[in-house]
Amino acid sequence: MKTMSVQAPRGVVMIRPHHFHPNPETESDNAFQSRDATRTAERIAAQAHAEVTQVAQRLQDAGVSVHMFEDEGRQTPDSVFPNNWFSTHAGGHVALYPMFSPSRRRERRSDIIEMLKHRYRVQDVIDYSGLEQDNVFLEGTGAMVLDHIERVAYAAKSNRTNEVALERFCTHFNFEPIVFDAADAAGRRIYHTNVLMCIGTGFAMVSLSSITDPTRRAEIAQRLCDNGRELVDLSHEQVAQFAGNAIELAGRDGPVLALSRRAWASLTPSQQAVIERFAHVLALEVPTIELAGGSVRCMLAGIHLTPRPRNAL
């Protein structure tokens, strides 16, 4: 369990929101969003702030490096999900992405990119955000679930995943694109790939029933298992509980799987047993954050960069 992998980043970037609320701009194509009429807006914001703080502490206790940034503004309700607007890659590469919702375009922050350059070895920053002017979108590691070991980018078609942008990313970053249609139990298109799929080092979680084409479904299942991974097949109901929205990280004592407590509770004992063979599980309380239609994986932008020597900082 102590073996580390290029799949599992040792550090993450998190954003702590001060005025969190579910974004009305994104609810039309995000069926995972919900509303809570039992709490005031102020109470929801305060509890979201507390949940992010607690997640960061639990990750740090497990040995994961957390770079926390504050968002005190009121114009970026989804800023708690930074994995959508940037990603980092081995070799010193950073990508910035074109966002579907105008409010989400305001989440991009130069101070985060400058921190990465200061603390890690960054060779270049490839900025795709100009594609927004052409209504071409690719929302980072929400739109794509990346297999860093086999160099495959899995992407479910949606308003937020343009195949032209995906091909461009894959050419620059040396991934093979695998695109598919995915729908929930009601037949609605799933907005982000990372709510139905999580790829770890020794296992993968995926909702095969959400992949609508049987041939594509079989191909994806085979590709995920090609290097010996064990497959955990998620039901529609488990996806609705954010079971697919998880991420493997490198902790102090080995791999850590971070997901929400709600997601973990939705898994069967046999599914949990498979995961526990490969990673220590961190089940995190984020029910308020999940109102926005994303969960723990969306909250964590993984850092796949090489740290600079401490004496150089």
Structural commentary:
The chain has 313 residues and is of the alpha/beta class. It has a single domain (11-312), classed as L-arginine/glycine Amidinotransferase, Chain A. The chain is built from ten helices and 15 strands. Strands 2-1-15 form a three-stranded mixed β-sheet. A hairpin with a 4-residue loop joins strand 6 (144-147) and strand 7 (152-156). The chain is globular, with a radius of gyration of 18 Å. The model has no long low-confidence stretch (mean pLDDT 95).
Task: Please summarize what this structure is.
GO terms for molecular function: transferase activity. By secondary structure, this protein is an alpha/beta fold.
Index terms:
about 25% strand, L-arginine/glycine Amidinotransferase, Chain A, three-stranded mixed β-sheet, globular, alpha/beta, about 325 residues, transferase activity, about 25% helix
